Amino acid sequence: MLNFIKKNQFIKVLGYNSIATVVKFISGFVSLKLVAHFLGTEGMVLLGNFKNFNSSLKTFSTFGFDGGITKLISEHKNDTDKTNKIISTSFISRLVIAITLSILLIVFASYINIELFKNHNFNYLLYALAISLPFYSLNSLFISIINGFQEFKHLISCNIITSLFGLILSTLLIYYHFLPGAILAIIIIESLSILITYYFYRKSKINVTIKSISFSYPDLKILLQFSIMTLTSALIAPASNFLIRNEISELINIDSAGYWEALNRISNYYMLIITSISTIYYFPKFSSSRSYYSLKNEFSTFFKILLPLFIVLAICIYFLRKYVVLIALNEDFLPVTNFFLWYLIGDVFNVASLAFGYLIMARTMTKTYIFTEVSFYIIYVLLAHILLKKIGLNGVIIGYAISNFIYLVMMLIIFRKFIFLKKINLESNHNNDYT
After folding, report:
1. Which of 82, 171, 236, 393 is the most buried (most CB within 10 A)?
2. Residue 20: φ, ψ to 5°
3. What is the pLDDT of residues 368-407, one digit of tens each?
């Protein structure tokens, strides 16, 4: 047994990553507790609006290349010339787009401020966000490079230190500056993290050189396939959450919107167990696999280990939900406990389909990704709209569970040959979808 654990890379990565997950989990819960205590439900809603906008903007500042960089480096990590072209092409492209977005954000700051913060004048925070964008873009580039070379220990160590840095900074800023502090913490953490990431990038001794003459249009075309997929999510996911949050505020009240946002935040933190290991381990593995059996073996470990682990966690969270709310938030948010059941069911369906989602991105199934992603959010928004009017806030949560179930069914249909007939095209032509 001990020899199996020592030789099994997944078990080793899972064990090491569990430390990073615990640190992120604790950091997130402390941050959430501070937000609940100092900002209340209205602050939770406004912070949610900013996080959605920030998420989309920063994804666009990277041009959605992160997944493509990780995939291409995983495939060509032994070819120095090729990796230099991939990284140089990405560096130049995303730096240009990040600077362009920074300028646009400064120009339209007043309009964006009204949409996000209503009566609050936070233009200066949007200016700070504009300045931070190029640094964030470079930070995510280094993370993608480390991930592509599968330097798991360095990447996980980087995540641990970044989480601790974020916890200290957000605690101080929220305590002294309330909502502006919470927003500023998000901006600063994701920008200054480049210092931490660059340290581990250098420590990993990855041999790459960024040169303008290495810019490659063929590689740019491949990266744009990932850009289309990533930017689709960057647009539709935050926009859908923004619509649902505002509709809850209008049809019920802002407190209910705050409860829904709090539930989303709690979900994000316990989902870290799955999403972190999937991003660090599964995506590079799915990208570099050249054998059906090796791919199927990596795929099966997800359902044999991670999915059962998450189901057990979900059951524990449900029965301890009152204590989870009191620890992560405060007694003002106790009504949130009434909505845990359907949200956890939705998250179980979400996790069950997650491996398929990473496989779609790893095999560059662009049309399939866009179809499934857009379909999910259209179904979710429509169900949330209909059920909110009929049964209130719980209708939105039920709509989330149903949408994730439908998404899982779509994935099972799309990958029926891979699951049952042992057929999948493993050629990296970056164009073909699978049926």
Report:
1. 393
2. -65, -40
3. 889 999 999 999 999 999 999 999 999 999 999 999 999 9
Give residues with Cβ within 8 angstroms of 152, minimum separation 6. 13, 16, 17, 280, 281
Across residues 346-375, what is the average pLDDT?
A: 88
Check residue 319 and give its pLDDT: 94
Q: Which pLDDT band holds residue 9 (cuts at 50, 70, 90)? A: low
Residue 48 Cα to chain centre, angstroms: 15
| 55 CB neighbour count, 10 Å cutoff | 16
Q: What is the 3-state secondary structure (H, E, C) of the chain?
A: CHHHHHHCHHHHHHHHHHHHHHHHHHHHHHHHHHHHHHHHHHHHHHHHHHHHHHHHHHHHHCCCCHHHHHHHHHHHCCCHHHHHHHHHHHHHHHHHHHHHHHHHHHHCHHHHHHHHHCCCCCHHHHHHHHHHHHHHHHHHHHHHHHHHCCCHHHHHHHHHHHHHHHHHHHHHHHHHHHHHHHHHHHHHHHHHHHHHHHHHHHHCCCCCCCCHHHCCHHHHHHHHHHHHHHHHHHHHHHHHHHHHHHHHHHHCCHHHHHHHHHHHHHHHHHCHHHHHHHHHHHHHHHHHCCCHHHHHHHHHHHHHHHHHHHHHHHHHHHHCHHHHHHHHCCHHHHHHHHHHHHHHHHHHHHHHHHHHHHHHHHCCCHHHHHHHHHHHHHHHHHHHHHHHHHHCHHHHHHHHHHHHHHHHHHHHHHCHHHHHHCCCCCCCCCCCCCC
Look up the pTM and report it.
0.74
Cβ–Cβ < 8 Å for 22, 272: no
Q: Are the C-beta atoms of 188 and 157 separated by less than 8 Å?
A: no
Which range of 143-147, 319-323, 403-407 scores highest in mean pLDDT? It is 403-407
